[in-house]
Amino acid sequence: MSLHNLNWLVSHTEPKASKMVDQLREHGIAHEELLALMGTIPRHEFVEPAFSHLAYSATSLPIGRNQTISQPLTVARMTEWLLLYSRLGRVLEIGTGSGYQTRILSHFFNKVHTVERQQFLYFQAKQRLSAMGINNVEYLFGDGQSGWPNKVEMDAVIITAMASRIPLALTDCLKQQGVLIMPIDLPTPHIGCWRKEGDRWKCLGTESAYFVPLLEGMVHA
User: Fold this and answer.
1) From 60, 70, 86, 106, active-site residue
2) Is 70 a catalytic residue?
3) Average pLDDT, rounded, for the chain
4) Per-residue pLDDT tens over the stretch 84-93
5) pLDDT-based confidence at 155, cuts 50/70/90?
6) How far apart are CA 9 and CA 180, in angstroms?
7) How far apart are CA 124 and CA 45, in angstroms?
8) What is the gyration radius of the CA atoms in the chain, in angstroms?
9) Taking the CB of the first residue and of the last residue of the chain, which one, N or C, has fewer CB atoms within 10 A?
10) How far is the C-alpha of 198 from the C-alpha of 206, rounded, in Å?
């Protein structure tokens, strides 16, 4: 990104978002373009209206259908890992949710493939991001554990729900040297970042975190 565009992002940061960005920086998030972007995205539009006044606070918040938007630090940490370790071609996101993480990914990756099992959230996120002019995202209402249906090879996979095991469909679609980011509850709940190296996985980072569980199947309406 050019210095001009980075300065534009910074100049359009809302006061509440600016405080959020300062807190992210204090917790070690150092990628300036990511910080600037998170300062400009209207996070209050991605949560339930009753909680919009808390949108820039350091907490997860309801988005409907018993789902949540992750706290800003968790989103920033996972995204920064991708920016540090992944090729920025195609990324598969499992759990579109509100579309907030999707919006961030769309800024950095050439193509975002995102899957949501809740039909209501799928339509809501698709409409929300389309209204924001985001046009490099492919949306799928489906079971995320089955991966992307067209067997497209991904540079990265990011999963935004907690699991006890990693679905093979999601690791099989990764290119060699591809990056997987996933919350897992063993031995304790945390998010991890791994790189695919042959038939082995190299851990690049971990951090404590809590997510809603990764579930099978689809929920209509």
Assistant:
1) 70
2) yes
3) 92
4) 999 999 999 9
5) very high
6) 28
7) 11
8) 16
9) C
10) 21
DSSP string for the chain:
--HHHHHHHHHT--HHHHHHHHHHHHTT---HHHHHHHHHS-GGGGS-GGGGGGTTSSS-EEEETTEEEPPHHHHHHHHHHHHHHS-SSEEEEE--TTSHHHHHHHHHSSEEEEEESBHHHHHHHHHHHHHTT--SEEEEES-GGG--TT---EEEEEE-SBBSS--HHHHHTEEEEEEEEEEE-SSSSEEEEEEEETTEEEEEEEEE---PBP--S-B--
Calpha distance 201→178 (Å, rounded)? 10
Q: How many CB atoms are located within 10 Å of the residue 197 CB?
A: 11
Residues with Cβ within 8 Å of 7's Cβ and at least 6 positions away in sequence, in order, are none
pLDDT digits (tens, 9 = 90+) for 103-117: 999 999 999 999 999
Triad 31, 159, 6: Cα angle to 5°: 20
- CA–CA distance, 81 with 3 (Å, rounded to integer): 22
CA 118 to chain centre: 16
| Beta carbons within 10 angstroms of residue 160's beta carbon | 29
Q: How many residues does the chain have?
A: 221
Which tens digits make up the pLDDT trace of 50-84?
A: 999 999 999 999 999 989 999 999 999 999 999 99
Could you tell me which residues come within 8 angstroms of residue 88 by beta carbon, excluding any fewer than 6 positions away? 82, 108, 109, 110, 155
More confident residue, 186 or 55: 55
